[in-house]
Design goal:
The protein is mainly β. It has a single domain, classed as Immunoglobulin-like (Sandwich), CATH 2.60.40. It is built from two helices and six strands. The chain has a six-stranded antiparallel β-sheet, with no helix packed on it.
Length: about 90
């Protein structure tokens, strides 16, 4: 699917008990490990920080991502910034 079509996907975030996160409108998963997830969405970049994070669902067609673990922070960025992951995270 082209980015122009994906940009029209609505974004919805649902966090239950800081342990189950559902995100719609995801265009790309840039990085995912047990401590951080970097998701490019139709509304910008979403950085999820936590502990014992696990990707439970990823549906490319619908842009749905489900994460389980302890969510400590949700950070939003407008569009993509120049530089690598740490430049965006700390810059």
């Amino acid at each position: 699917m082209e980015r122009t079509l994906q940009a029209e996907l609505p974004q919805k975030l649902t966090l239950e008990d800081r342990s189950r996160l559902s995100v719609s409108g995801v265009q790309e998963v840039e990085r995912f490990d047990e401590q951080v997830a970097v998701l490019h969405t139709s509304r910008g970049t979403l950085i999820v920080r936590g502990r014992d994070l696990h990707l439970r669902r990823l549906t490319p067609d619908g842009g749905q991502v489900a994460v389980e673990g302890t969510v400590d922070a949700l950070l939003f960025e407008e569009g993509r910034k120049e530089g690598g992951f740490f430049a965006r995270l700390f810059g």
